[in-house]
From TrEMBL:
InterPro entries in the cross-refs: D-isomer_2-hydroxyacid_DH, D-isomer_2_OHA_DH_cat_dom, D-isomer_DH_CS1, D-isomer_DH_NAD-bd, NAD(P)-bd_dom_sf
Organism from which the protein derives: Serpentinimonas raichei
Family designation: Belongs to the D-isomer specific 2-hydroxyacid dehydrogenase family.
Keywords carried by this UniProt record: NAD, Oxidoreductase
D-isomer specific 2-hydroxyacid dehydrogenase NAD-binding domain span: 112-291
D-isomer specific 2-hydroxyacid dehydrogenase catalytic domain segment(s): 8-323
Keyword Oxidoreductase attributed: yes
Designated name of the protein: Lactate dehydrogenase and related dehydrogenase
Domain of life of the native organism: Bacteria
A GO term from the CC aspect: cytosol
GO molecular function: glyoxylate reductase (NADPH) activity; hydroxypyruvate reductase [NAD(P)H] activity; NAD binding
Length: 329
């Protein structure tokens, strides 16, 4: 151990390029087995570390920070950072960063893919074929919902929502409506060909509703029984954001009763566990949190997280900070 080089913990198995870059600056402690650590194991491995390259499965809150007083910086390899207690980090003088931009386009591609798979019943059709049930063509077999020229509702109109809107409007001739904390400026709205509406109108008008908003306590179960009841029975719901935004039990009931046609889910409240109520349904497409999963994008995310640690060490400044902690005494 070189006493002059700060220690960095990498909580999950990452790419060799990332280890190499970090290894030029830090004493590394990594996780080549890719074990998923309990909170106590995370605390144990964080002892004496200056920084951590974390992922969205690593909860870093007041209890972790109190137990790891030497920790100065958390580089989260995700654009979402609901796994971090930002208030506690700020109070403890710990800097934190996320990975915006690098994942926008591939996540938007996946949003469209999941919407198409769900509305056009692609995975259901594949299961049907593989089960040997396809023995004749039928005019009414596996009929799905139109995607082109339909109305796409987007809840949360950040970078990913905008990239999805551009694809939907220009590639699929969809009408795009959105709801966001604040409306986009006129030029961005024009580029996305999108119109800002109330949440109630979004729910009522959307043929397909895509969720891409950040997960905060305020939007826990933002889509619950009351919201699902306002949607068209023919509608599709796609969640790319975080599982906790949707009340999954209410969703399973709506899908089961025919109150909602179909759902595409890449994220789950208790992931990697998925509710049996959802697994039992054929009108749900389920994917294991892979919206950003291309090699180029995941490598870009990991390198950006690594570069944040390097920049913080060399200049005391993160590249993509998400808090502004008071200087430590
Ligand atoms: C990541 C994501 O793959 O960036 C996010 O917020 O949800 C995904 O792109 C995942 O969170 C890795 O930590």
């Amino acid at each position: 151990m070189n006493a002059l080089r700060p220690g960095v913990l990498i909580t999950r198995r990452l790419f060799p390029e990332v280890l190499q870059r970090l290894g030029e600056h830090f004493e590394l402690r990594d996780n080549p087995q890719d074990a998923v650590w309990s909170p106590a194991e995370l605390i144990e491995r964080l002892q004496g570390q200056w920084g951590v390259l974390a992922t969205q499965g690593d909860r870093i809150d007041a209890s972790v920070l109190a137990a790891c007083p030497q920790l100065r910086v958390v580089a989260n390899m995700a654009v979402g950072y609901n796994n971090l207690d930002l208030g506690a980090l700020t109070r403890h003088g710990v800097q934190a960063s996320n990975t915006p931009d690098v994942l926008t386009e591939s996540t938007a591609d996946f949003g469209l893919a999941l919407l198409l798979a769900t509305a056009r019943r692609i995975t259901e059709g594949e299961r049907y074929l593989r089960a040997g049930r396809w023995n004749k063509w039928a005019a009414d077999m596996l009929l799905g919902a139109e995607v082109h020229h339909s109305t796409l509702g987007i809840l949360g109109m950040g970078r990913i929502g905008q990239a999805i809107a551009r694809r939907a409007a220009h590639g699929f001739s969809m009408q795009v409506i959105y709801h966001n904390r604040s409306p986009l400026d006129a030029a961005t709205e024009r580029a996305c060909a999108a119109r800002c509406v109330s949440k109630a109108e979004l729910l009522r008008q959307a043929d397909h509703l895509l969720l891409v908003l950040p997960y905060t306590p305020a939007n826990h179960h933002a889509i619950g029984a009351a919201e699902l009841a306002q949607m068209k029975p023919s509608a599709t719901l796609v969640n790319l954001a975080r599982g906790g935004i949707v009340d999954e039990l209410a969703l399973a009931q709506a899908l089961q009763s025919g109150q909602l046609a179909a759902a595409g889910l890449d994220v789950f409240e208790g992931e990697p566990q998925v509710r049996p109520e959802l697994l039992a349904l054929s009108n749900v497409v389920l994917t294991p949190h892979i919206a950003s999963a291309t090699r180029g994008t995941r490598l870009g995310m990991a390198l950006l997280a690594a570069d944040n640690l390097v920049a913080c060490h060399q200049r005391g400044q993160l590249l993509t900070p998400i808090n502004a902690p008071l200087p430590r005494k």
